[in-house]
Amino acid sequence: MSDADERESLRDAAGPAVSEYKRILAKVLDNRPSGTRQRLAAALGKNRSFVSQIANPSYATPIPAQHLDVIFEICLFPAAERRAFLECYGRAHPGRLERTRHRKDHRLRPVMVYVPDLEDDAKNQALDRLLADIASRIGKLSES
Q1: Would you say 139 and 66 are in contact if contact means Cβ atoms under 8 Å apart?
Q2: Model's pTM, two decimal places?
Q3: How far is residue 77's CA from residue 88's CA, in Å, rounded to a whole number?
């Protein structure tokens, strides 16, 4: 079996479990105030469409493990849903959680920063992504 065939086989086997944890995320997001998806996108340094994709059980795209802490923090995951999500995630991606959980758990805290309005939606979004990326990199420095 080629590497590509093996990857496809693993992806197909993980499909139902991926859909299962995405259903849990979608349910949690649906029970949060409006604007949560946008806040999550900003915290991840991604577009809102990325959040829609990772929360849609129809898409096979897995949620990157490094995003889980941010997702749990921004979405205020209830304990039972968090346990169920992690159980499904572990089934879908064996070993991935262990590789990312070797570091200490760090809680996130919001920081409000006022920046100039660049009077251009694309530029404002690029600035928002840049700031989210900088914050993410600072967080990774504290993990080392």
Answers
A1: no
A2: 0.65
A3: 15
